[in-house]
Design a protein that fits this description.
By secondary structure, this protein is α/β, with parallel strands linked by helices. It contains eleven helices and eleven strands. The protein folds into two domains: 182 residues, 3-Layer(aba) Sandwich (D-Maltodextrin-Binding Protein, domain 2); 116 residues, D-Maltodextrin-Binding Protein, domain 2. Helix content is 43%, strand content 20%.
Length: 313
């Protein structure tokens, strides 16, 4: 029976895909999740000769989109973009979830890691994190910061900073990080944790001001901006990350094929160059390595969420 199952899986993979494949992006258009989903969809369309299309299903910190993925047929024709928050942090943020990220999904291919940058509106006089915190405390000021929704990684980091620095930092959730960025540029917010992928143009024209990097090391694209640790704040070293996932039960032959095609693209194609321009660090992982990585990340984000104090119904 086991041999027959393996044979069926291999045969299925040889003919896959025979119709368009859907990739669920669990956030609205305009943000990094949407951008990455479309990059992967374009790459797979070009490599496999069948359309891979993105369907944005935002809401509830990514949980709505992943709930739909968990209920989808495990036939390889519905995939999703998972991330640090939806696959690791949300397990500890919410009292209950409509899915179990470790049981209802299987890894397909890791894409890469991406740090957050804390940016502020140019009206904020401080040019670094220490001065911003000192200025807020001296003036007893309240700053609002935006994110792509309640419970996302940027929200967690915002609350972690609020607790560690003892400042009045008020979270304002949006449907996407792009929407929050527009309000930050317009002066309706003071700050935002956002990925470098979305920042190049606003920084270049002086629409926002970067003051700290949530990563182990400085970014090559922002060499003069210190990390949180370099300004005296630890706990912000874990970047967010992204990977393609599928419903549990998806044939192993299809998982192996998609893993191979995406890994090749991350090394050999223009996809790698485009990701690196956005400060995304591509990383090559086998299916087993991705599974082990997820197990480690769940443990890591449990501690980060606990320290942030964020808890959601």
């Amino acid at each position: 029976m086991f041999a027959l199952t393996l044979c069926a899986s291999a045969t299925f993979a040889q003919t896959y895909p025979t119709k368009p494949v859907k990739i669920i992006a669990p956030y609205a258009t305009g943000g990094v999740t949407d951008v990455l989903s479309r990059e992967i969809a374009l790459t797979l369309t070009q490599k496999l000769g069948t359309s891979f299309v993105v369907e944005n299903r935002p809401g509830a910190g990514g949980n709505i989109g992943l709930s739909l993925l968990a209920k989808s047929p495990a036939d390889g024709y519905t995939l999703g973009l998972g991330a640090a928050n939806t696959l690791a942090a949300n397990r500890f943020l919410y009292k209950s979830l409509p899915f179990d990220s470790m049981k209802d999904f299987v890894p397909v291919a890791f894409i890469g890691r991406l740090p957050f940058v804390l940016v502020v509106h140019p009206s904020v006089s401080a040019n670094n994190l220490k001065d911003m915190i000192a200025d807020m405390k001296a003036k007893k000021a309240s700053y609002s910061y935006g994110s792509s929704g309640v419970g996302n990684t940027a929200h967690i980091f915002g609350e972690l900073l609020k607790n560690r620095a003892g400042i009045d930092f008020v979270h304002v959730p949006y449907k996407s990080s792009g929407e929050a960025l527009r309000d930050l540029i317009a002066g309706r917010l003071e700050a935002q944790f956002i990925t470098p992928l979305e920042l190049a143009a606003p920084i270049q024209r002086g629409a926002v001001k970067p003051i700290a990097i949530a990563s182990i090391q400085r970014l090559a694209s922002l060499p003069n901006v210190p990390t949180f640790e370099q300004t005296g704040f630890r706990g912000f070293e874990s970047p967010t990350w992204f990977g393609i996932i599928a419903p549990s039960g998806t044939p192993n032959g299809i998982l192996t094929l998609l893993n191979k095609e995406i890994r090749e693209a991350l090394v050999l194609s223009e996809l790698k160059t485009r990701l690196e321009r956005g400060s995304i660090e591509p990383q090559d992982m086998s299916l087993e390595q991705f599974r082990n990585f997820l197990n480690d990340e769940v443990k890591k984000w449990e501690a980060i969420v606990k320290d942030s104090g964020v808890a959601l119904d």
